Fold this sequence. Notes:
Layout: H1 5-12, E1 17-21, H2 28-41, E2 50-54, H3 57-71, E3 79-82, H4 83-94, E4 106-108, H5 110-124, H6 131-148, H7 159-171, E5 174-176, H8 179-187, E6 199-202, H9 210-223, E7 226-231, H10 247-250, E8 256-259, E9 262-263, H11 268-278, E10 290-291, E11 300-302, H12 307-317, E12 323-327, H13 330-342, E13 347-349, H14 352-357, H15 360-373, H16 378-384, H17 394-404, H18 408-415, H19 420-424, H20 432-443, H21 446-458, H22 465-473, E14 488-492, E15 501-506, H23 522-536, E16 539-546, E17 551-554, E18 557-560, H24 565-569
Parallel strand pairs: 1-7, 1-8, 2-3, 2-6, 4-5, 6-7, 9-10, 11-16, 12-14, 12-15, 13-14, 15-16
Antiparallel strand pairs: 17-18
Amino acid sequence: MELNEKQRAVVEAMExxxxxxxxxxxxxxxxxxxxxxxxxxxxxxxxxELLLLTFTRKAAGEMRARLEERIGFQAKNVTIGTxxxxxxxxxxxxxxxxxxxxxxxxxxxxxxxxxxxxDIAMELGVYKKAxxxxxxxxxxxxxxxxxxxxxxxxxxxxxxLFMAFTARLKENNSLTYGSILTGLQLLLxxxxxxxxxxxxxxxxxxxxxxxxWSLVENIKSITGSTLFCVADPxxxxxxxxxxxxxxxxRNQGNFTTYHLNIxxxxxxxxxxxxNNLIKNNAIRVEKTMEACREPGVxxxxxxxxxxxxxxxxxxxxxxxxxxxxxxxxxYLLEKTSRIMDEKEIPxxxxxxxxxxxxxxxxxRFHAFLKLIVNPFDNFAFLxxxxxxxxxxxxxxxxxxxxxxxxxxxQIWHDIYTASxxxxxEADVNNSLIDVATSIDQMFQRxxxxxxxxxxxxxxxxxxxxxxxxxxxxxxDIQDEIKENAxxxxxxxxxxxxxxxxETVIIAGMNEGILPSKRDQSAEAIEAExxxxxxxxxxxxxxxxxxxxxxxxxxxGKTTIEPVSRFVEWMKI
Length: 572
């Protein structure tokens, strides 16, 4: 299908800073791909000069695949990835400028981060009975730092812990997921001559936080790049995670703005309902979607449905992998998936792997892999010291480490040179599958081993341990979504961002669920409206809305949750 007039105008636009307002189903991915192709083929821009930032790795993969199909081998030289993926690559390459050691840097997830914070707090003597309320302040300081790049003030009570934690990361040649971007912020002044990008393109930019916008501005300042942003402020759903949802509204005057308004995805009735819903928000960029498709079937509203009722509804629509059940939170969705499993109804619950990847056993298993690529990771060694028989010797290992300037792993290596782990696994060049299989002999965890094998099969049959760990470091819930999914796909609305399905069933549309009962301020209701808007606009052909029974009993307490006001706002 040819680009429409407005899409063509955006693709060929020449201004320095461009904002493309692209509502759901308006072909934004195609516009991004065509613009990149246009710049390379018509404007003779080098592929090396393009930086294309996406919100999820799944979107980055789709973008690269489409661009390769469009322009061939040149697409391989375009930098495409999420902020975190691109930043991590740069830090792996130039980390010595930050005082990190050459070689692979390991990245800690939330589980390791919390464990390490507690360990340092105990060393500093601040881990006491009042730790829980203190921990809230600590988490708030780190969240602010990771979202804005602004460290705490030296007068802040958290400052000593913050500095000790930062020093420990450097000692371990490691980062946390959050510090990947703050690390890039510190790195940029040292690597300007290596940055070849002259054109930055941002997808889903409405969900970028203050630090991400600052990084883009810094790269622009260093390289003189143009900036092309695709966004829909009505789909900004990550304010709770630090996204600056009003940035584009505040700064629209700094951009030349183009509007796409035709929705090619959904039927006319779905588009009309979405328009009616989002018009209730006061703070937004004014726009109205136009439907390209026929009106379609009437939107279906089903009240007083439990998980069993939702399953019965799904059976009636005779759905499959192109049907999704979406909800505000995991509670109702997890229960629905569990009942489907019991009834042997094929389903794929997106988020199930999160329990595995966040488990202690998963982290301890991967500590072995991390030590192979980064022997300075003392925290990884701490996690496995009991497994390798270093529990009793550990205090002496720490003392010798401090005296000799070696890592804990290196000291242990000196003592136990005959260890089968050292002989068989401690070689970064060994096969990932061979090493993982060997490690699994200590754990006997088929699910962890299968997780690694799936990565090998889906991503890179010849992938190295370092490449796998780099992939895992920026693991995203959408990585669980597979093309060959079995049965209906069940996920939260946040997980469905950027996706589309022939049939969408939205579960739990009650007051107190969506919108959430936690915050009833005008700002919070607007955020919840945007979340429901995202859910509605995932549907192509059929949209079914369900609500739980309005009255429920729990431990003798009656809870009343009427049907969500959002259903009425849709005017269906």
